[in-house]
Amino acid sequence: MTDTVPALEALTIEQQAQLGSGADFWTTKQLGDVPSVMLTDGPHGLRKQEASSDQLSLSGSLPSTCFPPAVALSQTWDPQSVYRIGEALGNESQALDVQVLLGPGVNIKRDPRGGRNFEYFSEDPHVAGALGTAWVDGLQSTGVGASLKHFAVNNQEWDRMRVSADVDPRPLREIYLRPFQRVVENAQPWTVMCSYNRINGVHASQNSWLLTDVLRGDWSFEGIVVSDWGAVADRVAAVAAGLDLQMPGDENGDAQVVAAVHDGTLDPALVTRNAERLERFARVADASRRPETTWNVDAHHALAREVAGKGIVLLRDDQNLLPLEPVGSIAVIGEFAAKPRYQGGGSSHVHPTRVDIPLDEIRALAGDAAVEYSSGFSSATDADAAALREDAVTVASASDVAVVFLGLFERQEAEGADRPDIELPQDQLDLLEAVTAVQPRTVVVLSHGGALRLAPITAGPASIVDGSLLGQAAGGAIADVLFGVVNPSGRLTETVPERLEDTPAFTNFPGERMHVRYGEGIYVGYRWYDARDIDVTFPFGHGLSYTSFSYESLSVETVGDEFIVTVTVQNTGERAGREIVQIYASLPGSAVARAPKWLVGFGSVDLEPGQSADVTVQIPRDELGYWDEELHGWVVEAGEYSILAAASSRDIRLQSMLAVGSDPIRYRLGSESSLGEIMRDPIAGPAFEGYFAAMFEQFSAGEDVDFTPILDSSPFGRFLGSLGGAIPAGLVEDVLRRANTANGFE
Ligand code: BGC
């Protein structure tokens, strides 16, 4: 959105205020020669209302491809695939005359119960930032704008329009804002959508620190800030804070803005500035329209199937049961085989162009094998669970292998509600137990948007295939993996915990009395399980393949502000396959609390049997940084970092050391600065060294105890008195002034 356009001239302040809210639910106002723009959900397909655009209705949208939701997209760990999906979504948007698609969602999966986790990428900010960037780049390459959402710290559905996410600066910057920062800085989305919730007490929609200081100041955002639908509590405060567009339309809000200008409580320059941004946005969006665009429904379905296949995670395959041989007989059990679960409920719900039925797709690839189906359980509340189970057991025992589809129903996970637990339904667990008792050769296929407790099913079936939510081509993609047409290569982007009680936010979710305390700090996802050495059922980054890979060598090179990590990987098995290489960093002895390791990059490679190749991952130096709460900035501290090449967060294959020099660290020095901070300053240290060296010596003389730590952390000012007149008058003031000036403070 860098095109320059003439400044807004012809509009009155009333009209400028009117530009700042929608014409209806999905469009902005056409005013003067400023064109109207249509925005629609998002993210994994288009939800464009069929007839009028004056309603929120969650049904009745035009058909469009339901691509894999973010939960599965992220499991590809493949920015290229995500880019292609973004591009395809852009073409469908162009064809349906939509200028902004409301996505991607890059909020962190803080707690597995979060009701919209299926719309988000990961518990890890690097994964969410990298894939969110690819999504926006792909979409915007077609001339359609993204709306990066929900900004910010929107990690639960409970009390979502009022709750205050109370977060400390480090987790805020390092975990929750980081994916937004990455996407804004690397992809410049046309719009950012502010969230419903409050952050440390202030509504996102009227949070000038968030919308102006951070988003525009720190990250140089150039687009417009749009409210989530209904997120504006006080329009005048929102305009003052940096919100450009209130959605949907709100005439009262427009009038309030004008009144505030007239009574002097709102600077008219702010209204004009917003209107200018909106005008530029509308003109660019309008000029980017390509109404002649068509899309090939079959090609997009094929893309949805290909990427869904890449997002499937093979969690376990103990007896090498997979891929299935297309001979003998196969029992297909579970209602999801006939009525697939492939997307979540709420505003992201897409009316698909078609839906692959897993049972049909299995039959299509089963060759000579006989395929028998039994539903085993039912979504109907009045179903006879015992009878359904019995029938499934009969079918399973008469077959050579059983494939059992389990998961959650759409009503169990949708926007607007968090889940009460992370359990599979009891009748499904009973079914699986009964089937595995008669059929040891059992494969489980899972469909679900949020993480599940899988401990109850890991002992039973031989294999577990995690489909999460795969979009409209789920059925075909699952069949491809079951029969080895696709060798699974997906990896988890969210930890599967052993128990809900083990999860990081367990004692702090979802909060009470309109507040939720982010008490776990930076220890989110694997950072928590690693720090506390908690066993998990499947770790972050886990996923198996039908072949095997060895990691041969690891090298790390520093080039300018980047580290180039090269890992040589060999396919040591019998099938072609794709390996995802994860790169983590670690810094024992850091100056601040750190996770034992954190993801700094990843890459992947396709290899034929026996083939080896290098995977090169470029890691910007700032991936090593932490947010310094005293300096209010990012700091890369000096140290010997471990660089780990891994197949999962708990499967480290190779390690190398990397010596890193420090960023310039500048503290304002004063009487509360510690002696250590004074001594380490290049100006103050040498100036006072003589005085303090004697004191350090005097303290420690004849003692076994090392007093250095206590002296190092003692406030400088408190020692000036005890040193009597040892330091000449005026020297302290003069040295501190020179040091602070050199450090850019005065
Ligand atoms: C959701 C957004 C969505 C918007 C428009 C809101 O309720 O939070 O994600 O884009 O509605 O449907």
For the record, what is the CATH homologous superfamily label of the largest domain? Glycoside hydrolase, family 3, N-terminal domain
Total count of helical runs of at least 4 residues: 22
**Rg for CA atoms:** 29 Å
Q: How widely separated are the two ends?
A: 37 Å
DSSP strand count: 26
Which fold name is given in CATH as the topology of the largest domain? TIM Barrel
Strand order of the largest sheet: 9-14-13-12-10-11
Spans of at least 5 consecutive residues with low confidence: 2-7
Output the structural class: alpha/beta
- Under the CATH scheme, which class of the largest domain? Alpha Beta
Total domains: 4
- Major sheet: 6 strands, mixed
Binned, the helix content reads: 25-40%
| Strand fraction | 15-25%
**Broad shape:** globular
Identify every distinct bound molecule in the structure, by name, code or SMILES. Answer: beta-D-glucopyranose
CATH architectural grouping of the largest domain: Alpha-Beta Barrel
Mean pLDDT, nearest integer? 94
